[in-house]
Amino acid sequence: MSRYAADTSVRSEQSRAEIERTLSRYGATGFMYGWTGNQAVIAFEMQALRVRFNLPMPNVADRQFTHTPAKGQLRSVEGQREAYEQAVRQRWRALALVVKAKLEAVESGITTFEEEFLAHIVLPGGRTVGEHTIPAIGDAYAGRPLPPLLPAPERADG
């Protein structure tokens, strides 16, 4: 399976600016971007909620950047930098697509803002809903079978 925008030439800065423009067009009242280590962050305010996406960046020292995929040969320093930058550009394009798709789904009435962005809504303590609840999902399913994919029809008699 190929990755979305795996060969993109769109610079990361352009994708971040596109995300900001998209959010503004759909009614965001605030936007911020930052990074630390191998993680970038965007956050925005919309519909009286704060939303945050943490975008993990690849590790520049990973073999996929230091060596060629076909023969496993060591890349030049320039080749390593270009392979890494390509992966970073791909992630920013993917995030731009995700944000735009979520906002359009809300705008089209397919889903609600809260449903679409639930995992990324920032709670008053600073953690996202996802950071707060995802660990509990594994506990809820521990030792239990998955529910049926297609639920049985409700019976009229009770």
Quick take:
This protein has helices at 12-25, 63-66, 77-107, 113-117, 129-141, and strands at 30-36, 39-46, 49-56.
List keywords for this structure.
single chain; 158 residues; alpha+beta; 3-stranded antiparallel beta sheet; 5 helices; 42% helix; globular
Distance between the termini: 47 Å
SSE topology string: HEEEHHHH
- Category from helices, strands and their pairing: alpha+beta
Q: How many separate domains make up the residues? A: 1
As laid out across the biggest beta sheet, the strand order is 1-2-3
Shape: globular
pLDDT average, as an integer?
95
What's the number of extended β-strand segments? Answer: 3
pLDDT < 50 runs, ≥5 residues: none
Q: How much strand?
A: 5-15%
- Kindly provide the radius of gyration, computed on alpha-carbon positions and rounded to a whole number of angstroms: 20 Å
The count of helical stretches stands at 5
SSE diagram, text form:
Layout lengths: L11 H14 L4 E7 L2 E8 L2 E8 L6 H4 L10 H31 L5 H5 L11 H13 L17
Antiparallel strand pairs: 1-2, 2-3
Helix pairs in contact: 1-3
